[in-house]
Amino acid sequence: MNNDDKYIDLLEFLPQNIICGKLEKQFPLSVKLDNKYLSLSYITNLSNQTGQVGVKEYSLTIPRFLFKNIRTFEVIGLLQAEMGKTNNGNLSFANHEYKLINYVLYWFKKELEFDVKNWKWSIKLNMQEPTDLNYKPKIENKVIKHWTERTKITLEQSYPKKVTYISNTKNIKLKDHDYGTLVLEHKNNLFSQIIKNFVKIITYREIVNYEAQLIQGYMKAIIAGEGCIEISKQDKKFRVHISASKEEEKEIFYQCLRKLGVESIKYKGDKLVISKRKNNVQLLKQRLMTLSPAKYAKFLNMMQQYPNIKEETGYFKEKGKNVWNKIPQEIIDKIIELYNSGITNTKEIAERLGLHILKVQRVLQINNLGKRITTIPESKRMEIAKYVKDHPELNHEQIAKQFNVSKSAVSRANLKYNL
User: Fold this and answer.
1) Which of 107, 190, 198, 201 is the most exposed, having the fewest neighbouring CB atoms within 10 Å of its CB?
2) Which pTM was predicted?
3) Minimal CA–CA distance to 213: which of 174, 259, 165?
4) Do 312 and 333 belong to one domain?
């Protein structure tokens, strides 16, 4: 399996050495591979006060190929925005929206065969730890219930201290609709560095060279993780800020947006700002704000402040008539192209393009491709049912062949008319 157009080969993103400990000692990474998996390992020295007493091997087997689709690049962007970057042996991802947590959990399970139960978790609240012994369990139970009901995590996966607090804040109460930030962690130095190195190389070397659709997925996630919407009705300032901790990252995000036809301004510090109406309209039309439900809702509110925006964009109409309900033509073309190339399994097409299977089925049905349910006229249904009654010696499969319909169509006709 080496089709560069369909898959990302993780072999190309492996580090040469694995870094260990506070002294950041480096140990060579050993790689064994086949067409499906990478078997990775490194060996460290074991020592005590007398000197070296042995060696220890750390190993890991992971899938070699990842689907090169929008979903993968959305997750890469989310990890770039929300993942811890230091080589501390711990892979962590934090977010306050359960839909994004589920999105990442699903991707790790599907692409890397990394089960949800492998994650440990805790919830961080932006407030001081309560001293009221009645209030503290009340809010902790509330946030734990929220996250365990809306994501795939279980109580058994939690750290002993399920809820943590911060001290450098004046907040002493939790807002009604604040459920904190869920922090996912997996302590495995080898796995952590493989993922971090992969995300780093994609971001710093590769992302600006990918096709627009994959850049859209990546930037959609960057905005979901690092974006902020500013609405100032009085000053008529409608802007989207993107935070970037490093100048190099800011330049990368700037170039990615330019490739998508969105101009932005690089300010001193960590801010990249998208402000002019034409650029915000591009954010809307390319659906670059949609990955975070909360930010998308605020962005839509901001866009509606522009006069005549409904006529300009086709958005903000009554339900069912908005342009974003339509599948983009480039997506339709890719679905049809894959189908005509011999890939007729709708699930496989959906996985390759990072789409829901129902969207693929809808496109194929509209374009008279794939398996379709043929509408049988009522007169023919009645004829089939009567034939079933008149020929008890024939089974439904034989009758189906005679009428050139499916066996289930015969069963449904017989059940409906029951002659």
Assistant:
1) 201
2) 0.79
3) 259
4) no
Coil, strand or helix at 245: coil
**202 inside domain:** no
* Residues with pLDDT less than 50, the chain: none
CA distances from 329 to 336, 344, 370 (A): 11, 19, 18
Q: What pLDDT, on a 0 to 100 scale, did the predictor assign at position 2? A: 52
SS3 81: helix
111 and 23, same structural domain? no
Does a structural domain hold residue 84? no
Instruction: Quote the domain boundaries for residue 413.
Output: 378-417
Q: In which residue are the tokens 């036809």 written? A: 261
What confidence score (pLDDT) does residue 163 get?
98
Nearest CA among 195, 192, 108, 198 for reference residue 153: 108
Number of domains in the chain: 5
Predicted local distance difference test score (pLDDT) of residue 323: 58
Measured CA to CA, the distance from residue 93 to residue 102 in angstroms comes to 12
Q: From edge to edge, which strands make up the β-sheet containing 120-125? A: 90-95, 181-187, 120-125, 158-165
178 plus 105 within the same structural domain: yes
Phi, psi for residue 60 in degrees, rounded to 5: -160, 140
- Classify residue 280: in a domain, yes or no: yes
* Helical pair 277-285 and 293-303, crossing angle rounded to 10 deg: 140
- Domain co-membership, 224 together with 298: yes
Question: At residue 266, what is the residue type?
Answer: K
Pairing of strands 120-125, 158-165: parallel
